[in-house]
Amino acid sequence: MNLGSFFFMLLSFTGAVVIVVSVIAYHVKRLPSRSASGQLSAEELDDLRARLAELEQRDLRVEELEERLDFVERALGRAREAPSLRNPSEK
After folding, report:
1. What's residue 34's pLDDT?
2. When you count CB atoms within 10 A of the terminal residue's CB, does the N or C end of the chain come out lower?
3. Backbone dihedral angles phi then psi of residue 67, each to the nearest 5 degrees
4. Would residue 17 count as lying in a domain?
5. Which domain holds residue 44?
6. pLDDT value, residue 36
7. How many domains does the chain have?
């Protein structure tokens, strides 16, 4: 192995390690920080409460849409079972 290949492999390996460490550091930085007592800060708690309220609103909306879908399915089922109306213009 010549010296050029060695340096290329060394730089490749070092670059890969730097990328992996930076990705890990980025994800660790995004984790919610906790104080020494293990509690979330007031800002993080408010953010979580806001997200929870938003999810509860979405749940209510999904329930409403499910009820509407059930109604439409029942209405379509009754319409298919009902006899067809006669067209008065036809004899």
Report:
1. 57
2. C
3. -65, -40
4. no
5. 40-82
6. 55
7. 1
CA distance 1 to 7: 10
Query: Is 32:40 a contact under the CB 8 Å cutoff?
Result: yes
Tokens 């329930």 belong to 63
- pLDDT for the residue numbered 42: 87
Does residue 11 lie within any of the structural domains? no
48: three-class secondary structure by DSSP? helix
Q: Enumerate residue ranges in the chain where pLDDT < 50.
A: none
pLDDT at 15: 81
Q: How far apart are CA 61 and CA 67, in angstroms?
A: 10
Q: Which residues have a Cβ under 8 Å from the Cβ of 41 and sit 6 or more positions away? A: 33, 35
Asked if the structure places residue 55 within a domain, the reply is: yes
